[in-house]
Amino acid sequence: MSGSETEEQPARGPRGGRKHQPGRGHDRQSVAARKKRFAEKAAQKRNMREEDAKKQWREWDELPDEVKKLLGPAGEPRVRRPSDES
Fold first, then answer.
1. Is the pTM of this model over 0.70?
2. CA distance linking residue 86 with residue 44, whole number of Å
């Protein structure tokens, strides 16, 4: 065996082998796609919650005043009123 053959292969044994190089795994390649997926899912949930709140408040506003008085604050929707109801 010549000296060049031993240098090409990583050393074996208790202290040998390749040293740890952080950031060389799967994460660096998939992190952007993963962030995009999670952001899209969060945006979809936000939109669904907002649409649901608009629907609940629209139904509450359509009730007659007498029914609103009978129900009182307990009958109002539990979610915040959306700022823009377009």
1. no
2. 18
